[in-house]
Amino acid sequence: MRPLFCRLSFLPLLLFSTQGAILRGVTIADALGGPPLSNVVIRVSGLPDIRTDELGRFSIPLSQSGPSDSVLLNVSLPGHAVVNATQLEISAPRDEENTMITVLLTREPIHEEMSRRFFRIACLEATKARTRQSQAIGRDSAREDDVESHREQDLAFRAADILATEFARVPPEAMSPLYRHSLNLFLVGRVEKALAMLDDPSLRSFPRTSESFEAQFVENWLLKARLLTTQFRFDEARSAHKVAITEDPGSHSAWLGLARFEQ
Description:
Elements: H1 4-8, E1 22-29, E2 41-43, E3 50-51, E4 57-61, E5 70-72, E6 74-76, E7 80-82, E8 89-91, E9 99-107, H2 111-137, H3 143-168, H4 177-187, H5 191-197, H6 200-204, H7 211-230, H8 234-247, H9 252-262
Parallel strand pairs: 1-9
Antiparallel strand pairs: 1-4, 2-3, 2-6, 5-8, 7-9
Helix pairs in contact: 2-3, 3-7, 4-5, 4-7, 7-8, 8-9
């Protein structure tokens, strides 16, 4: 069974088609379980603006926007910012079905803190899932292996706060399409698939033709390191950090990421 957090908080966003599909959603303040937000403006290119009702609900008939492979939601409420912004970029497979999404908004002064909490829960859920998997595999292991496994689990859980802070502070311009797609997979509990997308050949071949692309190159490797940390794969996480530093020794983010990891 999937974690309750993944089933409710990060409802899959990749499950609709553009022919006759209806995208339904709800806007919530701060975090799952928070109060609904009414009068939030939802925009999709080619469609009239939609405002959420008193329960924070909205409904978008995607067929009216014409054929497309993706939809980008633009969500706005004065004085507020979106917490799970990457999840508003939605791919459209061919299966015809409607879907439901959750949009988390928070007041701008506390946006970083709410983002940190959002990612902390995601990191903890990923580590819990990996712990359950490890326990299922290692029920017959030797006692020494059990002790080492518990130590690794404890380290991963303790790292959640640091990882959450790093996630929350990545600027949007440093997030490549690869970063956003992989992060969204992580947020819905598909960690292994996210890591498969972040394989070394793909990361090394990422274009670095400008300063912004260089920053995205680094953040791709740091994302991989963070995801590996939630899976107790610490040696691989350290290697990912070191690649980022080796390839861009002037990157403050790369050096800070490694320092926090070693801490």
